[in-house]
From TrEMBL:
Name this polypeptide is given: CI072 protein
Classification lineage: Eukaryota, Metazoa, Chordata, Craniata, Vertebrata
Transmembrane segments: none
GO biological process entries: autophagy; endocytosis
GO molecular function: guanyl-nucleotide exchange factor activity
Organism: Gouania willdenowi (Blunt-snouted clingfish)
Gene name of the record: c9orf72
GO cellular component: autophagosome; endosome
InterPro entries, per the entry: C9orf72
Length: 462
């Protein structure tokens, strides 16, 4: 890159972030459009340490300005956040920029929060793009309120920027490979009792599928945790595996919102505390698996999860708006200014519904000889069966509702016609279909709002 690009004057404020391991992120920037001087960079974050590629402050400023050029006539709804993806081959970088409106010094400005990576990291970053964008959108919502009140947005943005740098660094070294050898999983054991009990494995895989493939595995033994992580990842697509992470021996990663499967180690006291806010902001409900005591718990289904997530988000933003101090409100604090909404801190519940799909698969897969490709082929056929059932369910609902024009009222017929009479089987196929068509749960169960487990069970009988 050209060395002639000099930083703007006055010098841009800069923060160096200490990240363990190699961080593929070159820099993050917060810029805004000045009506007199044009694009201006207000803050730069860079990882501290050795990097494969180095950008000077002037080069980072030049790239950040590039994302705001042409945004002076931006026309968007109030509160909209536009995501733009730039691949600058001549500079050898990619830029992910989130464009939004905010108030700086009493004036409405077009702002951009951007992350810059080497173009060589494109294949690594793309599977994680949706996760990073989702998390940056959350922090922008908080930041816009901070700007509106005249407070310093940098302190708010820094929390998530540092977290994303740590996430990318951890994924660089501990992400689950795209292809998993079944010999590295529990499914390769000679007998189901070799490494875990049959009922525990059955419940773990079943709940994992019921929560759209989103699970956390905690324990004290990193080898045991990672073996379960690899086992669960066998039921994910190759792209979803790239969004999963093994645990690290010696010290634990923190929980990261958006990953499909992640292994976490307990501390010296034998416990691991999950941050309520981050878990609730995950795109899908999550299964919690403890390999030390062989317990499996899960969050409520997608429609309840989405409802709680929206209510919590509104409550959090409302609390930020009502605060009279610039002192940072702890991101993990439970905010419920809406007295009608009191979130349940014990969001994980027992797996209540049995299934036949996973039970039959486990019984039959261990009848095949280990150490051969038979079990891998049988697993592939099982996943194909689930996928076809999910597509059939979508088509069934589409036909019954005239492509969504009328409410769905024949759940009992669906369960009979598609051979999903067991509640667990229905949950698994519904979760597979949810990933293909977002919002399916809310549509099927009648209300886009809150539907309790008791109401859901009543609906399922009709």
């Amino acid at each position: 890159m050209s060395s002639s690009c000099q930083p703007q004057s006055p010098a841009v404020a800069k923060s160096e972030v200490v990240v363990e391991g190699e961080c593929p992120l070159l820099a993050a920037t917060f810029a805004y459009w000045d009506n007199i001087l044009g694009p201006r960079v207000r803050h730069i974050w860079t990882p501290k340490g050795d990097q494969v590629m180095f950008l000077s402050d002037g080069e980072v400023t030049f790239l950040a300005n590039h994302t705001l050029n042409g945004e002076i006539l931006r026309s968007a709804e109030c509160g909209a956040i536009d995501v733009k993806f730039f691949v600058l081959a001549e500079k050898g970088v990619i830029i992910v920029s989130l464009i939004f409106d905010g108030e700086l010094k009493g004036d409405k400005n077009t702002c951009a929060l951007s992350i810059i990576l080497p173009q060589t990291e494109l294949a690594f970053y793309l599977p994680l793009h949706a996760i990073c964008v989702l998390r940056l959108k959350h922090v922008i919502r908080r930041g816009r309120i901070w700007m509106q009140k005249g407070y310093n947005i940098i302190s708010v943005l820094s929390l998530e920027i540092v977290s994303i740098m740590e996430l990318l660094a951890s994924m660089k070294t501990h992400s689950v490979p795209e292809e998993i050898d079944i010999t590295d999983s529990v499914l390769n054991d000679d007998d189901i009792g070799d490494s875990c009990r049959e009922d525990f494995l059955h419940k773990a895989i079943s709940s994992h599928l019921q929560t759209c493939g989103s699970s956390i595995v905690v324990g004290s033994n990193p080898e045991k945790v990672n073996k379960i992580v690899r086992t669960l990842c066998l039921f994910l697509t190759p792209v979803e595996r790239k969004c999963s992470r093994l645990c690290r021996s010696g010290s634990s990663f923190k929980y990261d919102t958006g990953l499909f499967v992640q292994g976490l180690l307990k501390d010296s006291t034998g416990s691991f505390v999950l941050p309520f806010r981050q878990v609730l902001y995950a795109p899908y409900p999550t299964t919690h698996i403890d390999v030390d005591i062989n317990t499996v718990k899960q969050m409520p289904p997608c429609h309840e999860h989405s409802y709680n997530q929206r209510r919590y988000m509104r409550s959090e933003l409302s609390a930020l708006w009502k605060t009279d101090s610039e002192e940072e409100i702890a991101p993990d604090s439970v905010l419920h200014t809406d007295q009608a909404f009191t979130p349940d801190l014990n969001i994980f519940q027992d797996v209540l519904h049995q299934d036949t799909l996973v039970k039959s698969f486990i019984d039959e897969v261990f009848m095949l000889r280990p150490g051969m490709s038979l079990r891998s082929s049988y697993l592939a056929q099982f996943l194909l069966l689930l996928h076809r059932k999910a597509l059939t369910l979508l088509k069934y609902i589409e036909d019954e509702t005239q492509k969504g024009k009328t409410p769905f009222r024949s759940l009992r017929n669906l369960k009979t016609d598609l051979d999903l009479k067991e509640e667990g089987d229905l949950n698994i196929i519904m979760a597979m279909a949810e990933k293909l068509r977002a919002g399916l749960h809310s549509f099927v169960f009648g209300k886009p709002l809150y539907t309790s487990m008791q109401e859901r069970d009543v609906l399922a009988t009709f």
